[in-house]
C-alpha cells in the first residue's frame, strides 16, 4: 500500500526499511557489555548498550530476553551486527546471531573466551566492525513510503497536562500514520488499567477484545501475587506532584496516544506486529523497559511525551521527545524536541500540534537527529519475568 508520504531510508535485504544505518555491537551477557562499550568507543558508526542479562535465566524469562536480543539486531535501523558473548553463558551468542542472520544482514560472532580474553575480543570485534561500518557508509538511501514505518508511542514523567496536550496530539499522529498504511504501537499495560474497556470496544474482533482484558488482568495479578498495591508505584511521586490524582486518570490520559483507529492486535513484549494499523504491545510502565520492547518489536522511531522531563533515548531508534507543557520545554530544551504546551496555552490546536509531530517524523526518518541521539542517550532494559537462578 502506497500512502504518498515519503522519506529517505535504507532498504534491507529482507525488504524492511531503516531510518538509521547502525552497526550494532550486541553483548549477549552482562560480562561482555564493557568489551562491547570499548569497541563502540574505538569504532565510529557503532552503537551498543549496557545490561545485566544473559545468564542463569530459564523458561519464559529466557525466551523473552532471547527475543529482545534478536529483535534489537533485527531492527531495520541496524545495518549489521557483531554479536559479542563470553562463551559459557545461557544465551549463546551463536544462537542469537543465527536468528538475526535470517534477515539477510551481515552478522558475525565474537567470543571473549575463544579470543583469548577481553583484549583479543575487542581487537577482533573492532576489526569486523570497521569493515561493516565502511560497507554501511557506502549504502545509498532510497525514497520509501510511510506505510513501511512502525512508530512506538510512550509517555514518561507524566503530569496533569499529558492527557490534555501531548498525548492527544500523538493520538492524532497515530491515526494519520494508520491512514498512511503504517503501524502505531501502544504500550504501557500498567498505565492502561482503568481504560481497557475503551480499547476493547475498538478491537477488530472478539479475540482481540478478550486479549485486552487478559493482559490487564495478568498485570494486576502480578501485583496481587506479590502482595502489593500497584498504586504504590503508579502514579509515581513525580506524577502526583505534576497533578495526577489516580492510576485511572493517568490511564485515561495515556490511552489518548492511541487515537481513534481500530485495535488490530495485542502482541507480547518485543514481538514484531503481524498486522498494520494500531497495535498494543504488552509492556510494563517502566520507561526504558517498554522503549526497549517496542524497538525490539521493530519500531524505527519512538514518540515520547513528558510533562516532568526525561533524557530517555535508544541506541538504535531515534526518540522524539514532546513536552506536555511549555515550562518543561523551556527548562529541558536540551532533551526535548517539540512543545505541545501551546495547546494548554490556547495558541495551537491538538490537530495542528499533531501535524507538527507528523512533519517531524518525516524529517527524523530522513536523517534529522533527535536530542537523545545527539546526547548519546543509549538506554536499554529488558522486562524480566522470573528470578535469576
From TrEMBL:
Region annotation (Disordered) ranges: 235-259
GO molecular function: lyase activity
Domain D-galactarate/Altronate dehydratase C-terminal: 147-387
UniProt keyword terms in alphabetical order: Lyase
Pfam entry (one): GD_AH_second
The keyword Cytoplasm belongs to this UniProt entry's keyword annotation: no
InterPro entries: GD_AH_C (IPR048332), GD_AH_second (IPR007392), UxaA_altronate/galactarate_dh (IPR052172)
Keyword Lyase attached: yes
GO biological process per UniProt: D-galacturonate catabolic process
Domain D-galactarate/Altronate dehydratase second: 9-136
Family that this chain belongs to: Belongs to the UxaA family.
Name recorded for this polypeptide: Altronate dehydratase large subunit
Source species: Neobacillus bataviensis
Taxonomic lineage: Bacteria, Bacillati, Bacillota, Bacilli, Bacillales
